[in-house]
Amino acid sequence: MKGTDVTVTSGGRAYKSYLAAPASATRKPAVILLHSFRGLEQGYRDLVDEMAAAGFVTLALGWQTFEQEPSDVTVKTLVEDGLKYLAARNDVNINAVGLTGFCAGGRYTMLLLPQMKGFKAGVAWYGFPDQGGTAAKPQAPSAFINQLTALMLIIHGTRDQPSPIATIYAYAGKLDAANKKFKLSVYQGEPHSFLLQNSRIADTFASRDARRDMLNYFREYLR
Q: Of 28, 74, 118, 159, which is the most exposed, with the fewest CB atoms less than 10 Å away?
């Protein structure tokens, strides 16, 4: 399943993005993908193709098109416009849309799932639940836990240095205390950004298994 470069207009600017869709006339579930801080690398494009082959219309938003570190408001608006972009397609079931992100994109997944009711489920890969407190990022994802209604899968490695596993366990504890529905998949010995190696999808057990975990999660809940 081969995707194509597309542009998503947000705030009067055209964001360079990437989309792949199953070859089917019927409406399919869809996923918005938010890449890591290192940009829309080839590995994420390959993952979009892989997700389309699994039955999901998948849109990777190039949120760094204009700034390396845009504000949370800018990214939220882009994701909202990404949902509108998907809603305009005749092959998307807009009532079955998920959100996934990696590294900074994982933080955005944790941050936006509680705030945006257009998503039924999300998968946050090695995110930063406590990152906030700046002008561009005023609030941490953990501040929005009580607003969360979507289901969330959290994927993390035990040897993640930028985002220590202890912060994820603490976040999971807060989710549990608030009686939120989530799943936590932890990979022993894996570092930050273990999905990719040299900008490509890593040929490792953890990368393969975590991708399988994500697809199965979306299959179960995006209906």
A: 159
Cα dihedral 165, 170, 171, 176, rounded to 10, equals: 130
Q: From CA 107, how far away is CA 144, in angstroms rounded? A: 12
Q: What is the pLDDT of residues 93-135, one digit of tens each?
A: 999 999 999 999 999 999 999 999 999 999 999 999 999 999 9
Q: How many CB atoms lie within 10 A of CB 145?
A: 16
Q: Comparing C-alpha atoms, which of 49, 195, 46, 26 is closest to residue 123?
A: 195
**Residue 196 β-bridge partners:** 201
* DSSP letter assigned to residue 36: B
- Residue among 141, 200, 130, 135 at smallest CA distance from 167: 130
Q: What is the pLDDT of residues 175-211, one digit of tens each?
A: 999 999 999 999 999 999 999 999 999 999 999 999 9
